[in-house]
Amino acid sequence: MDQRTFNNLIKFSNLNDDPKDILGSIYNNELPHPYFDPAHIAFRQLRNFNHGVWHSREKSNRTIVFKDLEFFNPTDTLHWNVNKDLPCLEHDKLILSCITHRFQWPCETVFNSWHLVQTCMANENTFVESKTSRPYFADILLGNLKQMRQIFFNLLQQNNQLENNLVNAFGQYKTPYLDEGTGEIDLFFKQFNDNANTTVKFKGFFCSQFVSKYIQESSWYSVVAETMHGNDVFFPTEKTGKALLSNKPFIVLGSQYFLKSLKNIGFKTFSPIIDESYDEISNAQERTKAAFQSFIELQKQDPIFVRQQLQNVLDHNEKCMRDKEWLSRNARAMLDPLTTNV
Questions:
Q1: pLDDT tens profile 277-305
Q2: CATH of span 125-321
Q3: What is the pTM of this model?
């Protein structure tokens, strides 16, 4: 591309009505973003991080492309009214970071996880080595002890599993080894009590979105304690993204069919090497117990043999997680027809 053409594309790219740089989470930053005629197309956030506050739709006939960064649980009707509060109209577009089950939006929607994209970008130069000796079985970073996390932690205690795993349960237990890392992100976390301040910015990203090589290279597996446990939503966050990026097999504490949904968006999981039947259980408490049993059964296998059996799956997942274009392919497919040639 010659300089004149590049400058022309930059000029039109800067004219997009996109104050929150929604396009930056969809298109690669090396080249100018496509041009969306602002007379007809605008980009807006659907909500802010206070989940009860929806942004009002402007009074115009423009197509508004809304982007939502967080989860939307259609069963949580305490703070909003479906008919009154949803700002999107039939001719708008909606880019979601979660997939809601049994709920129909009034406009075209597409899944494009802000959290997975941010994790991809934050760890562009971080690569976890495939070490053949690791001191701990799994990293189990539970954070704040929500229902499934508390149940899993109790099971760890009751079954003498704290010593052979890297565990962090805010306010209850933390493996001392976790504080011995010397990487940039490990040192950054040390300034916070219990690592609870995970949304503090570090190098332009949430600090929770960075992979700790120290932790990931010290354990064979991850137990991913996801944010949402309700069955009406599939909401993968950086917690899942970091396990995928780290070339690690994992067991997930999340909603029913979380692993099935992960496969539906193009990743691979670990059955039959790891028993993933827990993913089908509706009741959260029973699902957690089944996930713990799978965790215990996994300890009976040689971790090096398990990795050998799963290497193609692990490599596929890491390759996908490192490819922003792949992660955002569905959003681009929805937006590309709206562009204006310049």
A1: 999 999 999 999 999 999 999 999 999 99
A2: 3.40.50
A3: 0.93
